[in-house]
Structure formats: C-alpha cells, structure tokens
Specification:
Glycosyltransferase; two-stranded antiparallel sheet
C-alpha cells in the first residue's frame, strides 16, 4: 500500500529516530509541561512523530495526492512520447483500480461522486495499459459514463486530450489561436489577465493548438464506445444559454474565431509560435519544470516534441525529469503527484513544533530555518508585470519555482521564521525585510491578497469556453488576506497601518451571511473561518464585535457529535452543506486554532475538539485521514495533503496546552517583544 511506502521512504530520508532525543527531554526548563495527562501525552507523541519525519537537510516534505486524473494523464503522456515501463504501469493499474468507485466511476476526492472527465481518462489510460474492456471493472466504468451523458460531456481539458489522441476531432475544442501571444495588456483577454497556473498551461497548449497533433492509437485501444454518437462526427459541444448571455457571447466569438483562424497568414502564425516557444523555454529553465505543476509540464513536453526538440534538448530533458520527480513508486502501487509541497510542509511543521516548545537553538529548528532561507527567491518573475518596481524576496510552494513565489507560502514562512526567532539576527532581519516588502507590494487595490499576481481578477474570463473549470484567474481571497494581516500583526503593525485597514475592510465585506468565510485554498468554510479568526485574534480585534461572534458561533454550531469538525469538498458545489462532513484531524485542528485565537479556550466546544484529537490519535502518534481537505480549484481539482493530519493537530494541541497553563503562544511571545525593527520597508515609498 502507498502508506507503507511512505513510512519506508520517511525512514530513508530522515535522521535516525533512536539517535535523536526529543527537545522536551533535552532542556532543564521547558515552556510546556511533560506528559502529566492525556492531552500533553498526545501532544508529545505527535510532536516527536513529526520531528522524526524531518529530512537530513532540515526540511519536511509529505506526499501530495490528487485524483485519478494525474496518473491517467501520465500514462497518456508516456504513450505520446513512445515510452513504456510495464512494471510501473502494473502499479498504476492497481492504484487506479483501488481508487475506482463501486459504481464504476472515479471521483475527484475521497467519498465524492463520480466525475465524467476523471472516469474517461482513467478508462482510456487503463486500456492503453492493456486492460481488457470486457473486464468487469471496465464494464462498470463504461456503463457509468454512458449513463451520465457519455464522453461528449467531458470538460475542455479532457476534450483536448481526446483530440490529441484522435478520439475527438480538434474542431470540438474551443479556439485558442497562438496569436494570443501578440495581444496587448489592455485587451479584454491576454496572458497577463490570467493566473500563473493558467499561463503556464495555456502557452504550451497554444503551440499544440497550432500544430494540432494526432497521435495514432490502435482502434481497439480507443474509447469510441464511451460516446453515444460517432465521436468523429461531433462539431460543437458548447451550447448557447439564455441564462448566461456573457457565456453565450463568448461561444459565438469562439465559433467566429474557428472560421477566421485558417485565414491567418503563415508568417504571422510562425512568429506567434516562435514567441510562444521562447516564453515556454524561458519558463522551463528551472529544474522544477514550467510552473512546477504537472499539467503545464506535460503540455510543455508535448509542445517541445511538436517543435522538433530532440531527446537531448536541455529544456525537454529537464521537463521530462521534472515530471518523473513527481512519480511516487510504492511496492504495490504507483501514483503521480500534481506537484510537491516542501516549502509549505516545512514552514507549517516548523510553526507547529515551535508552538509545541521547540526552542530557537534546537538543531531541528535551526536546520529548518536555514533550509527555508536557502530557498528564498531573489529573481523576478511574472508578477513584475503589475509591479515593475517591486523587489523580489518571497517563497514558492515547491523546491524550485522561482518565477512564481506566492503570497500564502511567503506569509506562512515568515510567521514560522518569527516563531523560530530568526529575527534575532541582523543579517536575517534584512532577508525578512525583503520578504515583507514583497508581500506588501503584492496587495490588491481592494485590500485583499491573491496568490501569485496583483489585480488578477478579470472573472468574466471564466465564462469563455476554454475556462469551463472556472479557475482562469487569481483574485484576492479571505484566507490569503487573513494570512497577511496575521503576519503584519506579528511584526508589530496594528489596525492603523493602511494595508491592514484595507485588508480588514475586505474581510468584513467578504464574510458570508452565516458568519463564515469561504476557503479558497482549503476545504472550505472551516479553513477560511480559521484563517480569518487567527488574523483577527492576532491584530487585536475586539472579539465582542458582532461579526466576530457570528464567526465563532458558526464554528461552534458546526461541530460534529463526536467532537470533531469536518467539511466535504461537495460544499463548493452546494453551499447549503457548509461546515458539514466527516470529522477529520486537520479540519478539527483548524476549527480549534480559530476558536483559540479569539479566546475560546475555556469553552466546552474546544474541550470536545481536543478530546476528539486525543481519542483518534493512532499508535504512531499521528492521525489517519483519507479525506481531501486541500483545494486546487473548487469543483474540479482537490488535494490530499498527507502532512495536514500530522502537523496541524500538533499546532492546535500545543496552542491549547499553552492556553490552559496560562503560557502565551510563541506567536504572542514574538508580539510582546514589541515591533520588530526590520529597517525601512521600501515598498511604502512606492505606494
């Protein structure tokens, strides 16, 4: 099983657990008590288990799992490239079969309903790996697809995949002329108006759209049987709707473009392809691959091949290697990650352990701090389009993604570094200053923060036929805005600071009627509400204010009978289900952290939540969690962070343990030291 492989891998990359003494046994005086009761015992075991998972160089990296789509696409890519690894394919088959629902479909998250696009891709990949369409599990998949509208109903990205492999005509795919590369910034659609992830996926796709490759697939390996009608006779799969006039206008524009596109002069098309190639190659120079996300890398590999790149082309070689680095081979199963999350895992693990009592001079803390500083980014990226005078200094999500540092990681890393006491050293304060400067410069005009860009909120673009996933842009969100407020509070800024003023106003306006906040990057309203309450507690907001009390009441009202909290990914589809779902360790920890941040430590709700964590801890000192509590793109792509059930409970239990003993959190200790003098913040002169 995958979990067994994870345990083995962890032992390989971490220090010898027997040779390492927990910090609570290394210090004569400890900020937290020894295991005097069940809560402290649970915390100690969980913290020690987390410490054991630290890599030799000081960082943490846990597996990141999506749905069946990514391993299926990996198999399709290998077929495109003419490569085959039978042993690996057998393991991917086992993984896909285990992930299949009883009704034959594949879901986007554990326990979710079947998804037509994920099911079609998995079925196609399984056929290419030699699975018979007459096998019972394949028959069930086929019947489910046909009963749910057939492969005609797949999303745009699946349509593109089927077109590349000759299962659909290219005319069924929305028009995306490569001449988009020439569009000016003031035009209603251009590359600077879409998000980082969209940009990295689109540019290689533009080359494929221009080349329109069709990879030969033997007739018996195709998926024509998944369609209700003959697929090669299909033409227009996007329908007009009087309920969505803007979308209908874009569909009309799409059909006009398909008429005009063949008339584009070859010289213009050639220059556009070259511009796309140059952009793609420039963004493929790092070892992490273009955008450091699987879909973009796969598109880049195919685009480079269509451009005639040989096997030893450096950009092609790096891209293929970056893809291979995402493959997790277990003894029995194999799957492919959408990306990796070492920066995120490291800063969250560090925050959890420092709140649990790890001192700044502990070797594990020092190593983690140095590793994080080693990965700070000092080169410019696409974000400079909207902030040409802003100096770099943020962090990315992955090992290497220098063109795309993000606000979320940067804020969380900075708070972890402050908890670890990194600001006590002058040379590190300068580095922190650079990161804070970058973060302040990334604030949106409306007071919010998005993830990767400034003012990337042209949400009308989600109505174009290509954007049926609804995530083409990167607007400001409550969770990221809250993160930045919390950081600024730790640095000593208060509500009079203009960026904080604007951010708080955004949060007040963004609150849902029931008192919760939407979670963009975590599932869902529990995640968003925790993030905001943590910020409000840190910045010193009056917790008696009605909007704060309403949020607290919402969390309390949505506690499960078992004492935990849980929320399913289906709350993105049906807001009426907000805050409801099977209890999970990570979401329970978020709810507890939110309540503890606003002084609710003595409430029975918090006690019951803590009891839930203590009661559900496993023999290894960790928590089992199959549910997906991470969000990639709402309604279409979710994530299971294998680290969430390992570090968030530690953080929550440590915060509770401090509160009941009257010991301030490490965050509060940093704040009581007074404003941290980082020196002048250059971006303020630009504002």
């Amino acid at each position: 099983m995958i979990e067994a492989r994870q345990e083995a891998q962890s032992r390989v990359i971490t220090q010898d657990s027997e040779a390492r003494t927990p910090w609570w046994e290394e210090r004569a005086v400890q900020p937290l008590a020894r295991a005097a009761d069940a809560v402290q015992s649970c915390l100690n075991r969980a913290a020690q288990a987390l410490l054991k998972r630290q890599a030799l160089d000081g960082h943490w990296r846990f597996d990141l799992e999506a749905d069946a789509t990514i391993p299926s696409e990996y198999i399709l890519l290998q077929h495109y490239l003419g490569r085959s690894n039978k042993e690996r394919e057998e393991k991917i088959v086992r993984y896909l079969r285990r992930m299949q629902n009883r009704n034959g479909s594949w879901s986007l998250y554990h326990g979710g309903p079947g998804d037509i696009s994920a099911t079609v891709k998995a079925y196609f990949a399984l056929k290419l790996m030699g699975q018979s369409p007459d096998a019972p599990f394949m028959v069930r998949a086929r019947h489910w697809v046909l009963a749910n509208g057939g492969a005609e109903k797949v999303n745009v990205f699946t349509r593109i995949t089927l077109a590349i492999f000759g299962q659909l005509p290219w005319r069924t795919v929305p028009a995306m002329p490569v001449e988009i590369m020439f569009l000016p910034r003031w035009w209603f659609f251009n590359l600077s108006r879409v998000s980082y992830w969209s940009r990295c996926v689109i540019v290689p796709l533009l080359i494929l759209f221009a080349k329109r490759p069709v990879v030969h697939v033997d007739l018996h390996l195709g998926v024509a049987e998944l369609f209700h009608c003959q697929p090669m006779k299909l033409r227009n799969l996007d329908s007009f709707s009087i309920k969505s006039p803007l979308k209908s206008c874009f569909i009309l524009l799409d059909r006009l473009l398909k008429v005009v596109e063949p008339m584009i002069p070859h010289a213009i098309r050639g220059r556009a392809i070259k511009r796309a190639e140059n952009w793609m190659r420039d963004h493929t120079k790092g070892k992490g691959g273009i955008g450091a996300i699987y879909p973009a890398m796969a598109n880049a590999a195919m685009a480079l091949r269509e451009l005639g790149a040989p096997e030893d082309d450096p950009d092609f070689t790096r891209t293929v290697q970056a893809i291979e680095d995402l493959v997790l081979d277990g003894e029995e199963e194999t799957y492919v990650q959408p990306c990796v999350s070492p920066i995120w895992d490291t800063c969250l693990s560090l925050s959890a352990l420092t709140e649990a009592g790890a001192q700044s001079d502990h070797p594990a803390v020092q190593q983690a701090v140095e590793w994080l500083f080693d990965h700070q980014i000092f080169v410019t990226g696409d974000w400079t389009d909207r902030a040409p005078g802003l100096e770099p200094g943020g962090w990315a999500f992955q090992y290497e993604n220098d063109k795309y540092p993000d606000v979320d990681d940067t804020g969380m890393v900075l708070m972890a570094l402050l908890r670890a006491g990194a600001h006590d050293k002058q040379h590190k304060r300068k580095r922190i200053n650079q990161a804070v400067n970058w973060l302040l410069g990334m604030q949106n005009p409306d007071g919010s923060w998005g993830a990767f860009d400034i003012g990337n909120n042209s949400e009308y673009l989600n109505k174009i036929p290509f954007a049926d996933h609804g995530a083409l842009v990167d607007p400001g969100t409550a969770d990221l805005t809250a993160r930045c407020i919390e950081l600024l509070a730790m640095l000593g800024y208060d509500q009079s600071f203009p960026p904080v003023q604007r951010a708080l106003e955004f949060l007040r306006e963004d609150q849902e009627e029931d008192g919760s906040w939407y979670g963009r990057w975590g599932v869902n309203y529990i995640y968003g509400t925790w993030s905001v309450l943590a910020a409000l507690g840190a910045i010193g907001e009056d917790v008696a204010k009605p909007y704060v009390r309403k949020a607290v009441q919402w969390l309390q009202d949505h506690q499960n009978e078992d004492g935990g909290w849980g929320e399913s990914c289906n709350t993105y589809d049906d807001p009426g289900l907000t805050g409801r779902g099977i209890s999970t360790a990570s979401q329970t920890a978020w709810a507890l952290l939110g309540l503890l941040a606003v002084g609710a430590a003595g409430t029975p709700h918090v006690q019951r939540g803590v009891d839930y964590l203590v009661r559900t801890q496993n023999a290894a000192g960790e928590w089992d969690e199959e549910e997906y509590t991470g969000t990639g793109f709402a309604k279409v792509f979710y994530l299971r962070y294998h680290g969430y059930a390992r570090y968030f409970p530690v953080w929550a239990l440590a915060t509770y343990a401090r509160a009941r003993q009257g010991i301030p959190t490490r965050q509060a200790e940093v704040m009581t030291e007074g404003p941290i003098d980082l020196g002048p913040i250059p971006v303020l002169a630009m504002a």
